[in-house]
Amino acid sequence: MPSFNYARYLPAAINSVLSQSYADLELIITDDCSTDESREIVEHWRRMDNRVVPVLHQVNHGLARARNSGLAVSTGGFVALCDADDVWLPEKLKTQMECFRAHPELGVVHSDSAIIDGEGNLTGKKFSSLLHRKGQITSGNLFEVLCERNFLCVPTVVLRREAIEYAGGFEENLRSLEDWVCWTKVSRKYPFQYVDDTLVQYRIHGAGLSSNPKGMASNRVKAFRFLLDSFSDIPAELRSKMLYSLGVSHLETSESRDAFRAFVDSIRANPAHLRSWARCCQSLFS
Fold first, then answer.
1. Buried (b) or exposed (e) across 17-43, using 16+ Cβ within 10 A?
2. What is the largest CA-CA distance in the chain?
3. What's the pLDDT tens digit per position in 85-122?
4. Model's pTM, two decimal places?
5. Where residue 279 sits, what CATH number does that domain have?
6. Helices 213-230 and 236-252: crossing angle, nearest 10°?
7. pLDDT bucket at 208, cuts 50 / 70 / 90
8. Do residues 184 and 237 share a domain?
9. DSSP summary character for residue 140
10. Domain shared by 157 and 220, yes or no
């Protein structure tokens, strides 16, 4: 559980993990140099429950390093993620661990989540209704699907330890979307399973990283670049789609020249990608 200045939400997040019906767990909380009361809250819970393991950063390093710091001191054969502003429902871990027992080949089990607002109120929406496309493939071998876009809800994810070690943890050069890159690396080797139940309450509020659209577009540029550079064997048609999405992200950050180059590269990879031709014209006029 990475945390940075989330004292407002931290108690509910901690309580939701420690109240799981599947109780054989350790809760590692990495405080990324918070300036609010977060550390006092973590210490309070550590005294109450010996399953709480604090990791304290003296300098703010960002989300990926915070996740990796927790991973480095963890001891379990499985790794689950819960951000400090989200809430697990009581049967979450039990449900997912049953999937791993039934299918030992799995590397990741994830699920749907219910959306809550900054006050913890249910909005009536689900993560799947916001992020899943029609006919979205969510189980099985997901590498090519994940190369195009991220559709996993972070606090729902449980990974087999060997799977996240295979991925090398989280990419610390990314300030956001480090989770997407990690899932994509894992999917090169391990199948995924999706549980079509809401096992988590996922909070969307103004303080979240996703509240800055231009910043998120900039992070998508970095993530796409990382994926394209990491996997040289991506099929040409898929590479063309990724380059198209890279170009769109460049347009969203007003980088029309970089967008033009990405669309040209998309056309080179697959001349039949008509949307890239159209976007080439748009980026030129931009």
1. bbebeeeeeebbbbbbebeeebbebbe
2. 62
3. 999 999 999 999 999 999 999 999 999 999 999 999 99
4. 0.93
5. 1.25.40.10
6. 150
7. low
8. no
9. B
10. no
